[in-house]
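Contributing new complexes? Match this layout with fe (ii) ion.
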Amino acid sequence: METQQEKKLILFVDDEPNVLSGLRRMLRPFRNDWEMDFVASGQEALDRMAQKSYDVIVSDVRMPKMDGCELFTQVSEKHPKTIRIALSGETGEDAGLRLLELAHQRLSKPCDPEHLRTTVSRACALHGLLSDPQLEALISQMGRLPSLPTLYAELMAELRSPNTNFERVTQIIAKDVAMSAKILQLVNSSFMGLRSKVTSLTQSITLLGLKTIRSLALSVQAFSQFDDRKMKHFSLDAMMNHSVATATYARKVAEMENHRDMADEAFMAGLLHDTGKLVFIERLPEVFDKAIVLSHAKGKPLTEIEHELIGTTHAEVGAYLLGLWGVQDTTLETLAYHHRPGDCLNTSFSPLTAVHIADMIESCPPGMPLSEMLTEGSLGYIEAMGLAHRIPAWEALAEETTSRAKAG
Ligand SMILES: [Fe+2]
Ligand SMILES: [Fe+2]
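Output block (do not edit by hand):
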């Protein structure tokens, strides 16, 4: 179904001749798939890019005259379709956070060729999926998408500053009363598993950490831009609960599988995984309502019906919207593939794995074994990762939460 692979055009930038020749040597085996150019400065890179349109630029971060951040800033303006991958040594925190915004992916030096190859391929697959002309046409028919919530942009700026402080973060959130109320409501929901009732934002931030609060703020803002009044068979509140529960399970699954480093991202992606549905309720309320009804009536997955009626699914549309908002690639990947993880080129445990499993746990009716919820595709994906024996342990998560909710 995928169109045949054309040779990808990739530009490598590094001011150190040794690194550049090392890359050239190391990447020789990939020359059938990639057409590669190598240049030694940001300026040269921009000159080349003015002549050819590159699919990917892989650049060193620390370079004299024009550094990687500056180069990527210009590339993002002049060639927004080119995927930006940063190759960094140890950089200061500042550059780290700035890069997070400017680069689609980050790799650290020295970089193993296979890792570089999969990173580039994954990025190309994701961006290919999201810039598919058919998807773009469908989305443009839906009208202008909501822009990045300003409060989130403000929060990001604060979190990016070298001396982020809790108080300022609290002030930013507190400006929006509805948002603060919603955050407190979520913090106190049984899924968060906090023992006592939390009554202030400061306390929430201390207990949950800045990253969790940032994720909650983004999802609350995302949700507040849409409205479900035109929908008969859809409730925003129910979806918010589903998202928080999925996020919480996703975090737990990541922790249980010894991927604590992915826990925060799994939580964030869990909160946002169904964002595409919000776009549908706003732009295509009647069709989407019909899709929900049909999916129940026919006992078919919602994504299948969405595909039939709309031509795309909430998974791709959600990833597309958050891509416009500058959300990081791995989160977009999770959104785009959350119903068909086996199609993602990343075959190792990732936030996608955690969210996919969490979504299943959350949607599983009480009393039904989790294994029965899994489609052939998702079972294959879990088996390929060697994790099939973990299914009962994940199942126990759902039971734990249900009994806690009942007790509390
Ligand atoms: Fe979904
Ligand atoms: Fe879901």
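Reviewers usually confirm one structural detail per submission. For this one: The radius of gyration is 22 Å.
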